[in-house]
Write a structure and sequence with these properties.
The chain contains five helices and seven strands; from the N terminus they run H-E-H-E-E-H-E-E-H-H-E-E. The strands form two sheets. The protein has a five-stranded mixed sheet, with helices on one face. A two-stranded antiparallel sheet has the order 1-3. It is globular and about 40 Å long.
């Protein structure tokens, strides 16, 4: 249902000026119990930046990224979340030191229902839709996604929003 809502073209009518820091802090607050249960530390470096966007979808995007960084991490691991503004770009980065993604799977992880390791899907839960929601949410906000990952070293996902005030 969330993906079909993202496919609707009229969502841009609901855009407003929103604080990414506030949304990010809310997601971190909601996911802290899960991180504590998995013994994963969450570190934030959040500049107070604003974009023209749809807050519920931005929340969902951030939730999926941070949740994945926690779920696919190691005990005593960490998730580093940063928000920065560089000229006309706002960069959101979610970095973990977890299990990483093998190179052959990286081009497909944003596809609907794609799972890197289907044998562990019962252990980690989920449907394989989280990163697809991230991809569609980024597209709705005309943002770019970059992924850096290596098995055993972790994953970094960066979303670059472009300042609409330029």
């Amino acid at each position: 249902m969330k993906l079909s809502r993202l496919d609707e073209s009229d969502l841009e009518k609901e855009f407003e000026y929103v604080s990414l820091k506030k949304i990010c802090s809310s997601v971190v607050n909601d996911l802290t119990p899960i991180a504590q249960h998995k013994n994963v530390a969450i570190n934030t470096h959040l500049k107070d930046v604003y974009i023209n966007g749809y807050a519920p979808i931005l929340y969902e995007m951030l939730y999926n990224l941070i949740d994945n960084a926690i779920i696919y991490n190691n005990p005593k691991g960490h998730v580093d979340i940063s928000l920065a503004k560089e000229e006309d770009e706002i960069i959101l980065s979610v970095k973990d030191n977890g299990i990483g993604i093998p190179p052959e799977h990286q081009p497909r992880i944003f596809e609907r229902f794609y799972r890197v390791d289907k044998s562990h899907s019962k252990d980690t839960g989920g449907t394989g839709l989280g990163l697809s929601i991230v991809k569609h949410a980024a597209a709705l906000h005309k943002a770019d996604i970059d992924l850096i990952s290596a098995p055993g070293e972790g994953t970094t996902v960066m979303i670059t929003f472009y300042d609409s005030d330029k």
